[in-house]
Design brief:
The protein has 2 domains: 208 residues, no CATH class; 148 residues, 2-enoyl-CoA Hydratase, Chain A, domain 1 (Alpha-Beta Complex), CATH 3.90.226. Helices cover 31% and strands 20% of the residues. It has 13 helices and 17 strands. Helix 10 packs parallel to helix 11. It starts with a helix and ends with a helix.
């Protein structure tokens, strides 16, 4: 088993001053500090010339200054994994999950194909620590909800304190969400991986047990459906966990069948649960909206855009690289008649994990009185950035991301405020849904 002691010694440096003592193997070590400094300069320059208004989410000058400080801290030689660890400390400064340095997914997958063993458990990073997430294989010996307090003898608090400051996202909560989704790859990026994992697990009673994970047993099982229709008495609950564009055909089929059943059972309200929807394609959210309203709507009222070859034709007379800030609407007129369109009360549940296109959908429904929003405020802003571009850093091959649009919601409200629920709900997710059902029942 590979010991984590190879990196735990410099961990205080890693966290406190945003540097890392390189420990790349002789075969992989190839990147000099100057090569990474050149990458930093390329990343900063590309971001400033690609983002339509970096000051919308970040301080451009502070970004430059901190990049120079990271450059000064570099020493030794690096492989791609260590390069990401050293440069990604800039990610939180950008305050946007659509911008920053992506961890080296390709190198992680290559390591796995070469026989590397990824950390198998699905996890959820919370303020209180790292927990085993739901969705385990039915053969697993681990209980969902157990807290992971050590991995291979290293306190999880130390692991999280090293990884969270390298995640992209607008807030600590969103960065925890990103790390939850990418934990096995991020752990590999931090440690170089292991051939097995021993974890210490604390259960609800507070007792702790050590367990060597079996990658065949202690892993995520078959995940549940990303789209589901449930019923709470006379209320239909649509759980929509993604607007992934690759699922457009499946989503069209699901919504057609769901609203067919809704029409047959005639509920007095429909609840759309977007609390685990991280976004995706507008095509899917437009499909859903068409079942809720026949009135025209627009998700945006204005846009700040960087002109690129992809969008130049939309702005006659514009120049490549130019930034345009203008009132702009993208009106959608749903088909006049749609079988099984719902005309009752609609409520949309949102929360900290609602993001990107899911936020845009909820904001649009709120602005056009299509639905009332319930739950807790989103961590992401109601005014979202979009159309993310990718740039490969010339020396390390790491991928930098930046949007070319910043949108203003249909209401015209500017700034970075979240979606504010019309019906605030507290507590755990099941409690929120129960409280909403009780409120709807009382107000019939």
């Amino acid at each position: 088993m590979l010991s984590f002691k190879t990196w735990i010694a410099p961990l205080c440096l890693l966290v406190s001053c945003c540097s890392i003592a390189p420990t790349a193997s002789a075969d992989d070590a190839r990147l000099t500090p100057q090569a990474l400094c050149d990458d930093l300069e390329a990343w900063v320059g590309w971001t400033l010339s690609t983002h339509p208004d970096l000051s919308w989410s970040a301080d451009p000058e502070a970004f430059r200054v901190e990049a120079a400080a990271v450059c000064e801290s570099l020493d030794g030689v690096y492989d791609q994994r260590l390069a990401w660890l050293s440069l990604s400390v800039l990610n939180p400064m950008l305050n946007d999950a659509h911008a920053g340095l992506r961890y080296p997914e390709g190198a992680f997958e290559a390591w796995r194909l070469d026989g590397g063993e990824a950390f198998p458990l699905p996890v959820e990073v919370r303020e209180e620590g790292l927990f085993v997430a739901a969705g385990l294989s039915r053969h697993s010996r681990v209980d969902p909800g157990a807290q992971i307090v050590e991995i291979n003898g290293v306190q999880v608090d130390q692991i999280l304190s090293a990884l969270l400051p390298r995640m992209r996202g607008e807030s600590d909560a969103l960065r925890r969400r990103v790390l939850s989704l990418r934990f096995s790859g991020a752990l590999w990026a931090l440690t170089g991986g292991s051939d097995s994992y021993v974890v210490s697990l604390r259960d609800e009673s507070g007792s702790v047990r050590r367990l060597t994970l079996d990658p065949e047993l202690d892993q995520a099982g078959q995940s549940g459906p990303v789209f589901a229709l449930d019923w709470r008495a006379d209320v239909a609950v649509l759980k929509i966990n993604t607007f992934d564009g690759a699922l457009e055909e499946d989503f069209a089929t699901f919504t057609a069948h769901a609203f067919d059943e809704i029409a047959a059972r005639q509920p007095y309200a429909v609840v759309i649960d977007l609390r685990h929807n991280g976004g995706g394609s507008r095509a899917l959210s437009d499909t859903l909206m068409s079942y809720l309203t026949g009135e025209r709507y627009t998700p945006i009222s204005a846009v700040t855009a960087r002109i690129t070859p992809e969008n130049q034709a939309l702005v006659p007379g514009s120049q490549l690289g130019q930034v345009i800030a203008t009132p702009f609407a993208q009106w959608v007129q749903p088909v006049e008649t749609l079988e099984h369109r719902f005309d009752g009360d609609v409520f949309i549940l949102v929360g900290p994990n609602t993001y990107s296109q899911a936020i845009v959908f909820a904001a649009t429904a709120q602005d056009f009185d299509v639905a009332r929003i319930a739950g807790t405020p989103t961590e992401g802003a109601a005014n979202q950035s979009g159309q993310v571009q990718a740039f490969i850093l010339p020396n390390s091959g790491l991928t930098a991301l930046s949007p070319i649009y910043v949108f203003t919601r249909a209401s015209g409200e500017t700034g970075r405020a979240p979606i504010r629920p019309d019906i605030p709900l507290q507590g755990a997710e099941d409690q929120q849904l129960s409280d909403l059902m009780n409120s709807l029942s009382r107000n019939r």
